[in-house]
Amino acid sequence: MKSAVVVFPGSNRERDMAHALRLVSGREPALVWNADRELPAGTDLVVLPGGFSYGDYLRCGAIAAHAPVMEAVRAHAARGGLVMGVCNGFQILCEAGLLPGVLQRNASVRFICREVCLKIERSDTAFTRGYNAGQVIRVPVAHGEGNYFAAPETIARIESEGRVLFRYSDPDGKRDDTWNVNGAMNAIAGVLNDELNVLGLMPHPENHVEAAVGCTDGRGLFAGLVAHFAQAA
Amino acid sequence: MKARVTVTLKSGVLDPQGKAIEGALKSLGVAGVASVRQGKVFDIELGEGDAAKAEAALKDAAEKLLANTVIENYRVEVTG
């Protein structure tokens, strides 16, 4: 799996992401500066990492969504290439129109930095084939604007099309408002585009890939992606 | 030419910041506050002298960047 991590001014999770990709795939990911207009030839997976691109000015991800590299990301997605945005990367993908909806200020109006439980809604995607449907994983979140919102008809459509991939839940996989940490509609933590090749999620699976940090639940996402490309090759 | 673009949340969209401000105003004892919705104001100077062209350019700016039309409405005023 050949991966590329896009770096914007204010990104701060690109090294965590690169570390996880390197650790699980065994290949060095390319770091691509946001002013570049091309991705490295043969890129399989593009990742937009977490952080505070352009200082979160205007709206989270709004300025980064128009950075020169985003045309290349859009073209990669249009060709069927995989794109994953984590945290600020999710916000950027929404602002770029590559994913539906928007990430609003947390309902608590507080920055939330903690571990959450995520229910894997389906395992038949390139991003979740390393998990079982219904499985609950533990991963950290760290965001002030992760409260997913979309118009009711959009929510109904993405739900009926099975495009909610990750949902905040209690440790047993049950929906519970106290575990929906940011107040997201339908407790949505991660969504797919209509072609299922672009994913955005608020939590950070890249931070739970090593036993040294106490949990490796995020590893399945990267291992699943590696398996996806190994099978395709 | 000067203009103002005002961006407001669509009705029905939750506004946690507006709610927090509303709560703070109530706790300060400011009388008669029923509800608060927070928005943004952009004061923009344009080189364009034609009001109609300026308005078209500002609508373009609002659609492309200043507002996220999933959750926000915008209003353009050319102020002279």
What is this structure, in a nutshell?
By secondary structure, chain A is an alpha/beta fold. Chain A has helices at about 15-25, 70-80, 90-95, 150-160, 220-230; strands at about 5, 30-35, 45-50, 80-85, 100-105, 110-120, 135-145, 145-150, 165-170, 190, 200.
Label this structure with key terms:
heterodimer, A: 233 residues, alpha/beta, Rossmann fold, 9-stranded mixed beta sheet, two-stranded antiparallel sheet, B: Mth169, Chain: A, 2 helices, 3 strands
How helical, in percent, are the residues of chain B?
25-40%
Structural class of chain B: alpha+beta
Can you tell me the CATH class of chain B? Alpha Beta
Computed Rg of chain B: 16 Å
Oligomer: heterodimer
What share of residues are in beta strands of chain A?
A: 15-25%
Rg estimate of chain A, integer Å: 16 Å
Q: Biggest interface, and residues per chain?
A: A-B, 20 and 12 residues
Q: Could you say which structural class the secondary elements and strand pairing of chain A correspond to? A: alpha/beta
CATH hierarchy class name of chain A = Alpha Beta
